[in-house]
Known about the structure:
The protein has 29 residues and is an all-alpha fold. 83% of the residues lie in helices and 0% in strands.
Amino acid sequence: xxxxxxxxxxxxxxxxxxxxxxxxxxxxx
Length: 29
């Protein structure tokens, strides 16, 4: 029960982080 929300949070966080890294690599400031 406690692992369910964690899994969702982890996936969202990983996706967000990956998107951020890709954006940074693709469009460096």
